[in-house]
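MFS transporter, putative metabolite:H+ symporter
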Amino acid sequence: MFEILDRRTSLTGNQLKILAAAIIGDALEFFDYFLIGFVLAFLIGPWKLTFGQSATVLMSSGIGAIIGAYSWGWLADRVGRRKVFIGTVLNFSIATGLLYFTPDNGWVYLSVMRFFVGLGVGGLYCVDLPLVQEFMPSSKRGWVGGLVTCVIPLGTGLGAVLGASVGSGDWRLLFAIGVLPAVLVLLVRLWVPESPRWLCRQGRYEEARKSLAWALQMDPSALPMPTAADAGPIIKSNWLDLFKYPRSLLVSWLGNAGAQTGVYGITLWVPSLFVLLLKVTPQEAAKMMILLTVFGFVGRISFAYFSELMGRRNAGGLLGFGAGVLTIVAGYNYDTTIMGVSAFWLILAVGYFFADGGFAIVGPYGAEVWPSHLRTSGMGSAYGFGGIGKIIGPVGLALIVGSGNYLKPDVPLPQIPLAFIYLGCWFLMAGAVYYFFGLETRGKSIEQIDRELAETAGLSTAATAVRRA
């Protein structure tokens, strides 16, 4: 049945609806997630926060994202993609809205509620990409998967625009706006059916046929009734089965860890660093972030195209090496100018083309390297393991600079170059892992990837069952 899907060379209106729901979801979830970077720029002065306290606020959502990625990802393999999609949106939207009630000097409350924001964000990212991929033909999977992530910088950019627009005492309004993504639940309920591949693996063949027929805008009777040969034998997912695929673990876990440590360390700290190092106001810092998000958006579109042009491995290597080198160069130029303009700002913007743009590879590829019955569990585990970077990225910079130092526009900090070497090396590790150890998935159907993974893992029984069915 899925061979009919793979022969398609264009997307139907209903497939575009699924894609749109995922795109809107990603944009709004990361709008909620990165709001804290702009809010923190307003609080560092009035609350007299230290680097250590600020790092605690920033890393708390990372801890939540780790747990959310593992738990929601596992649940999506057990109960379905659609239910988990809805649950995660409600999770992070409500938690962001509750941040409106943050008391003055309440950095502990801020940290606790940010944990729950991260819980939902980590979950949604691990379910919406696999859901979209399972509705798409092989020839479009890399491009479409990358396209879903392209709007994430727009979510960050929206936060930058709003951060530049509100007064210093109105920062709570940013969190109130963060409730709006809950409206996405209505779109999901109207537009997005359950994944036909997930239904097929549960033995719910008639429902799978109806789901795919809806996506292709065909009469269900025009599609053959699926069997185990279409999506593999019925297998109940077991989280421990992830360890039967060591290469998938290596590539997806370390690739995510390197990319997330670098990009979250930069993104969460940069608005505050602009205030500290460049002596600008929080509103001006938010405006400066708009340039970075523009480069990130262009980078994501480019890397979505690169994933099909040069393959996942080469594109992954390019993101890691490009981001790593430019991050280190930016750190060494934190106090220099080019024709009166901050070199730190300009180099970081170009680096964002690779650092943030490369997530058009990191996310979709992190799902592709896992077999179908473990796809969201595998991607969730990779994103969760990489979520360590949401902690060690911002905390690592704070420790290098001095966690007890107060964040105040004083003198430039000489430890900044070392902190950016630290972040840049994480990008370089990701590039090396993708380029030297990656599994090439370009142009392969999901079923072909499943067979190859089964063979490399030595799962002869499963492979034989697929062939016989």
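thats it. The beta strands are 337-338, 341-342. The first strand starts at residue 337 and ends at 338. bye
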